[in-house]
Amino acid sequence: MSLKASATLIFVFSLCVVSAKPQDSIPSEPYNVAEAYKIYSLLLQHEPSYPFGKDTVMIRQEALVASTPCLTTPAEKKFADAVVALNRLQRKRWLLQPRFQIDRPYKLIGPEVIKTLPSRPESVTASYVEMSTVGFNRDKTRALVFMGKSCGGLCGHWTYHLLEKVQGKWKEVPGVNCSIAS
After folding, report:
1. What is the pTM of this model?
2. Alpha helices in the chain (DSSP H)
3. What's the domain count of the chain?
4. Where do runs of H (alpha helix) occur along 21-166?
5. Which domain holds residue 55?
6. Distance (Å, rounded) from C-alpha 26 to C-alpha 36?
7. What is the dihedral of CA 83, 172, 125, 22, to 10 degrees?
8. Most-buried pick from 31, 115, 117, 145 (CB within 10 A)?
9. Whole-angstrom distance between the N-terminal and C-terminal Cα of the chain?
């Protein structure tokens, strides 16, 4: 794929993500899926901003809503149930709960806090991590989640993550062929 085609794909994908926001009239529900918090906790420790922040990790409380992921053809087939489950979950608004198991303090933040963050932060500590609900296959051995960080204004990076449960532990696997960066 050419650089121009890749840039176009990323731009179109980002428009889909932005336009997929839930309606404000839909009430929020607590998101309490234990396996999802295991996945979040694993992925949070690999977020680029995680090791640099000196203070509390800020996590957006409202789960992100994203469009259909861009996966390789083999991953699309292998994770089809997880994609369907994620799309079904995205019909509702979900609030993440304080169930993360990470080695740093964290705080769930809402839109009122996000609005007060600088649009051009001076440091990584002003960024926050955001994620979607997790789509699982029927037996919860495959999962798909959209996750990233926003550092104010047009600054940030988001991508899908594919995971498989191997010998009782979640492991990220390849198969995503795009991401959003600004």
Report:
1. 0.82
2. 3-19, 34-44, 73-78, 80-89, 111-114
3. 1
4. 34-44, 73-78, 80-89, 111-114
5. 3-181
6. 22
7. 0
8. 145
9. 20
